[in-house]
Amino acid sequence: MLSARNVVKHYGGVQALKGVDFDIYRGTVTTLFGENGAGKSTLMKILSGVEQPTDGQLILDGEPVRFASTVEAQHRGISIIHQELSLAPNMSVRDNIFMGRELRRAGGVDYAEEARQAAALMTELEEDIHPLTKVGDLRVGQQQIVEIARALSVDARILIMDEPTSALSATEVEVLFKVIRDLTARGVAIVYISHHLEEALEITDHAVVLRDGSMTAKAERADIDLAWIVRNMVGENFDLGSPPTGYEFGDTLLSVQSLTVPDDSNVDRAAVDHLSLDVRAGEVVCIYGLMGAGRTELLEALAGASQVSDGKVMLEGRDVTHMDIAQRIAAGLVLVPEDRQRDGLVQTMTVGRNLSLASIGAFVKNLFLSNSGERGLVDDSIRDVHVKTDGPGAMIGSLSGGNQQKVVIGKMVTTDPKVILLDEPSRGIDIGAKAEVFKLLAERAKQGLGVVYSTSEVNECLSIAHRIIVMGRGRIVAEFGPDVSKEQIMAASGESVAA
Amino acid sequence: MSDTRAATNTKGKSGLFANGFDPVGLLLEGRAFFGLIAIIVVFSYLSPNYFTFDNLLTMSSHVAIYGLLGLGMLLVILNGGIDLSVGSTLGLCGVMAGFFIHGVELAPLGVTLYPPIWVVAVLVCGVGAFVGLVNGILIARFKVPPFVATLGSLYAVRGIALLITGGLTYNNLGGKEALGNTGFDWLGFNRLFDIPIGVLVMIVVALILSVVLNKTAFGRWLYASGGNERAARLSGVPVKRVKISVYVLSGICAAIAGLVLTSELTSAGPTAGTTYELTAIATVVIGGAALTGGIGNVRGTLLGAFVIGFLSDGLVIVGVSAYWQMVFTGAVIVLAVLLNSIEYSGRAKKKSSNDGGATPSPQKTESAGTAASGGARQVPQKTAG
Ligand SMILES: Nc1ncnc2c1ncn2[C@@H]1O[C@H](COP(=O)(O)OP(=O)(O)OP(=O)(O)O)[C@@H](O)[C@H]1O
Ligand SMILES: [Mg+2]
């Protein structure tokens, strides 16, 4: 249906794509795999008119085409869900879905009809979101659902999804897959990018692997398995490992006592409800739960980013409940936030300055910033989390999505914390990078770091955690050791195990 | 595995940390600079009196006022805010200077105090800082949008200046030898190495601010909180303190400008500085700063001040009518900013069309980031002013 022929893309001196051929077929799901920075998003941006190729050709229904803009691509039936959310947070779900394509009727916009369609889309995606909710009030995962709904509402013939599920729970992914199957049955072509390899494998018909801007492999579903993908992506086989062992836990570092966080949108319910939790030195605690379980609220409250209505937070026996964020960072309690665009990165600054932002105190010498101090810190940090960049002077926006995520993680690891809270840190990073992050956390844990790792991927829990806590409705609903099975965790979270 | 990933490039490193000379960065900024040259060339051609030493001195005294206001405004704009009250603050501070020079009567004691000039200057800066503090607290603590809070002060502060003088102007600012408060005209009339004191004051303020912006934690905090306040806060940046500080600093800059202007005019009128807030915004914007925050530097703002000052004086010298002066000034402001944004427009346009023209805010910041990356190494350079 749509083909790319020998597409090349340069960004300044960086060659993001080196002559790629790519085909999309009617009624099938083509998945695109590749490391962070391999060029996946770039290729999709070219197919959907966001970027122009430096060289090469696009062929739609047998004839060469050029898309000068996304609007043009949309007219030809191509719709894209971007890796980075592109919603207007100040507007409602309904207005976001129909932004730029408002339904008209005599005398203005037909808001009622828009709301009805928006509600229908939400029902289709089995999501309980009112069309008039402000998008800024939604959690990342819900925003992602809105983003998907917007792409669906276009009625595209070709639908490109660049990591649509990075913030979704397993159930929601199931629902999305159901929708995707419906679409393909109607003849829609889908391109699907994900770093959740098993998940992608479940839905794929064709798999294509990109590596360093070139296509390295291509195969039908029947001929591939997980190992094939990993082998072609990174050139070797490996797994995420298992929780670090061979040492004793130290003293209790973090002690949360009966913590309660009010829910802004619902006064009857607390987002975190009298929750108590201890984390010891060297221990990796994984918090698993569905969206809305209160994980983000818990971690934000621990980091001092939100109001607490009751309870206490102790760090190394010190009461930090009334400290602000900066004081907690100084005391050694840091948060890697969930939403990298909104909370993690300063887009107007360079990679280096983003990495050093939380550790400025470490390289101030008599009032002034020390260049050499900062450079050392930034270089270490880039090495620690393996950021693929032109150098610390590159703007943060020039990094691929996964590499931006690594910067968010690196920034906080660099502060040399005692307890690190990570909220869905693996969003968008490839399997190799994930393994590196796990290795880093495991190493630091051995040296006595306490880790609280929130995720909605069961496999991640099993590969890193000494203790797995399942949250639901703001409380701890179950607690497991490292030997638990995937099914047990999911059952405890109230998720259908069928998934 | 790890060695392929660890292959993070080392070549571009000098970019972030280099502070020295950077020809490419200069060229990019060059556009405003060439604009300035063009202005000088055109007016020199039109009038033989333009490019003379005396006129240059006169013009640079005007530039000093715009520059001082602009530098304060730059801090506020870097923070993503706006300060509409600087013109009024300038007026009030001039009036306060006149008020102090004419003696502070302490009624219960039956004495009138005549503070020495340096005390007057400190007190006046205190007044400016106070106005800024009120703005800052309204904005940071009570979450009043900057535009609204400072619009309120624009009116209120001007009103106070009028109240103090009853609408009149302090004329005799010479002070009296016997009272030990002479010397106020030094600011406006004296020269050091042939350079007017006002200009030197501007240069000193500019140097201090450029060190603060590039070499201190405060500067880094300011760029970060202007670029993304939430991310900055979560990284431990004291965003509220930064915010209040920039308005206080802007108030102080306005106070200094008020002192210089009052001294140059040898009179303190309550309406001095009306609409100067707009000129200040123009200097910052011509200097390449983004009104969304996080981007801009001292060098650019100074350049902007020269463009505005040299242009408006030039128009007066060649005898363009006052009405046309406004038209020209407006055109030049837009033109300068247009030139500044030309390199960005290509990509920015594509980005914003994602959503059929409506640009949601996350998109905006992203396009700022990606657009800048076209010249990845020049941008940090700009901020390293
Ligand atoms: N605007 C840009 N300016 C400069 N370089 C860019 C820009 N956008 C992308 N790149 C570079 O192009 C390469 C490919 O990036 P792309 O975003 O396509 O990766 P990706 O495969 O989507 O990775 P991820 O899995 O992390 O999302 C990277 O090296 C990236 O640094
Ligand atoms: Mg990507």
UniProtKB/TrEMBL annotation, chain A:
Species whose genome carries this gene: Salinisphaera hydrothermalis (strain C41B8)
Membrane-spanning segments: none
UniProt lineage: Bacteria, Pseudomonadati, Pseudomonadota, Gammaproteobacteria, Salinisphaerales
Gene3D superfamilies with a match to the protein in the record: P-loop containing nucleotide triphosphate hydrolases (3.40.50.300)
Keyword Cytoplasm: no
Name of the protein: ABC transporter ATP-binding protein
Molecular functions per Gene Ontology: ATP binding; ATP hydrolysis activity
Subcellular location as annotated: Cell membrane
Signal sequence bounds: none
Record-level GO cellular component terms: plasma membrane
Topology of the protein relative to the lipid bilayer: Peripheral membrane protein
Keywords: ATP-binding, Cell membrane, Membrane, Nucleotide-binding, Repeat, Sugar transport, Translocase, Transport
Domain ABC transporter: 2-237, 254-498
Annotated InterPro entries: AAA+_ATPase, ABC_carbohydrate_import_ATPase, ABC_transporter-like_ATP-bd, ABC_transporter-like_CS, P-loop_NTPase
From TrEMBL, chain B:
Membrane protein topology class: Multi-pass membrane protein
Molecular functions (GO terms): transmembrane transporter activity
Keywords: Cell inner membrane, Cell membrane, Membrane, Transmembrane, Transmembrane helix, Transport
Subcellular location: Cell inner membrane
Primary localisation category: membrane
Ranges of biased composition (kind: Polar residues): 354-366
Feature: compositional bias, Low complexity: 367-376
One Gene Ontology term, aspect cellular component: plasma membrane
Region feature Disordered, mapped onto this chain: 347-385
Record-linked InterPro entries: ABC_transp_permease
Signal peptide: none
Residue stretches spanning the membrane: 32-51, 63-82, 89-111, 117-140, 147-170, 195-223, 244-263, 275-295, 302-320, 326-342
Family: Belongs to the binding-protein-dependent transport system permease family. AraH/RbsC subfamily.
Name of the protein: Inner-membrane translocator
